[in-house]
Amino acid sequence: MNPFIQNILAITALVLAIGFLITKFFLKKKNSKKACGDDDCGCH
């Protein structure tokens, strides 16, 4: 495979992985108001 294409694919995969981690850990959505039951839903 062409090294240029391989570098582009590797950088694209790296950017997607970093973007996923940033959205997962740093941009957490706020919990919507739901009725809490006996299960631990994390809203209290």
Q: What is this structure, in a nutshell?
A:
This protein is mainly α and 44 residues long.
Description of the structure:
The protein has 44 residues and is an all-alpha fold. It has one helix at 3-25. The model has no long low-confidence stretch (mean pLDDT 82).
Q: How do the SSEs run, as a string of H and E?
A: H
E-strand count: 0
Residue-averaged pLDDT, rounded? 82
Residue ranges: pLDDT <50 for 5 or more in a row? Answer: none
Tags for this entry?
44 residues, 1 helix
What order do the helices and strands come in, and which of them pair?
Blueprint: H1 3-25
